[in-house]
């Protein structure tokens, strides 16, 4: 197996081939003819072939020289292609962006940012995958996703939070539910008297509820557990209760059919929504531009 080929020697070889003489190549490159002679000899030793027949009026390429010439041309073509691709990436005419997002945040992400962004940069490939919070974090850390948009992810040294906003958890109930007209503040114990739905354990909401249970030394008993906000919305409309951040639900539902009730507890008021990337990961121009647009346009953070 050949070692890595010295590219300077290949360039000298090409000049000799193009000029027909070592002296002509030396004059064109502004180096001593002896330097080119020595480098050609080293290249022939490196490749274990003879590249030129030395004659009185110059040099004549051998059959092996034709093979090396093809290699030289392919290298140049590959370099030109690489430079062209990088230029396109810098101009955001090429590349991909992979985003992991909680299901609930797909509508604002699409409406506020991605629809316009994809029209501005139609040659970029954008991949959006709906995942739970812990899955998004894992895939961002493992470089399977460039960007994560998730509810209440735990602090992690491998994650850099680009944007964050407070999004307290509320108790969502159907319009007309008895808890709406309760004269005193709602407490956690009140929830136990009604059918409860919860997000799956790997979601940001569920992890907050687990912390609440441990702090208050209680055990909630949901009759429905799901990884889908849509399922919980339908469960609420059917008369059940669910813990969610209001921003997770369809605004049309919140405007009439569903009421968000506040439970005065610091654990429920602390959660945040985060837009994040892996700590230390180099980001392409396209990803940086998308993050900037999210900062100004994404309603979840404004």
Automatic annotation (TrEMBL):
Q: Which UniProt keywords apply?
A: DNA-binding, Transcription, Transcription regulation
The identity of this protein, by name, is LysR family transcriptional regulator
A GO MF annotation of the entry reads: DNA-binding transcription factor activity
Question: What's the family?
Answer: Belongs to the LysR transcriptional regulatory family.
Listed under GO cellular component are: cytosol
Q: Which organism is it from?
A: Mycoavidus cysteinexigens
Q: Which domain of life, per UniProt? A: Bacteria
Task: Quote the InterPro entries the UniProt record gives.
Answer: HTH-type_LysR_regulators, LysR_HTH_N, LysR_subst-bd, WH-like_DNA-bd_sf, WH_DNA-bd_sf
* Gene3D superfamilies (UniProt xref): 3.40.190.290, Winged helix-like DNA-binding domain superfamily/Winged helix DNA-binding domain (1.10.10.10)
